[in-house]
Amino acid sequence: MSRYTALIDGTAGAYGVVIPDMPGCTAMGDTIESAIFNAADAMRDWAEEMAAMGEPVPAPRRLDDVRLVEEVREALAEGASLATITLIRESGRPAKANLSIDAGVLAAIDEEAARLKLTRSAFIEMIAKRHLSEAA
Question: What are the tens digits of pLDDT across the range 74-83?
Fold first, then answer.
C-alpha cells in the first residue's frame, strides 16, 4: 500500500488537491473530505494511465522531501496544507473474503446497503475505499 503526499488548497466550497509525485494528477471538491476522496480516484486513474502507456508509477517520496519542493513550500506559505492519500489500484477481479462481524453490525450494514441499493460486498468495499482514502 503506497501513501502519497497531497497538497490541498482552496476555500470553503472549492478545494483543489495536487499530488506532487504524480505530475498532472489533480482533483477538486466542495469540501476537503470530498477533494481527498476525489483525489484517491484521480490517483488510481493516473496510475492506470501510466501503466497503459508502459510507464512506471513513481514511488512516493517521504513527506520531508516533498516539503522541500519549491512549489510546495510556496503553497504552504500561502495557506495550503498537506495530507497523505493511499493509492488503491483495482485489479478488476473479485476476491472472496470470509469475515466475522458482530450480528448487530452486520444487520446495520445490510440495512444501509439495501437503502443505497448496493450489495453487502459493494457497500463494504465502498466504505473501505472511503476510509483508506481519508486515513492520514
Answer: 999 999 999 9
Could you say which of 1.10.1220, 1.10.357, 1.10.3470, 2.60.40 is the CATH number of the domain covering 94-136?
1.10.1220
Angle, to 10 degrees, between the axis of helix 120-134 and the axis of helix 32-52? 100
Q: State mean pLDDT over 67-86.
A: 94
Going by pLDDT thresholds of 50, 70 and 90, the confidence category of residue 93 is confident
- Calculate the CA 23 to chain-centre distance: 16
Model's pTM, two decimal places? 0.74
CATH number given to 1-90: 3.30.160.250
**Residue 106: enclosing H or E segment and its boundaries?**
helix 103-115
| Stretch(es) of the chain classified as CATH 1.10.1220 | 94-136
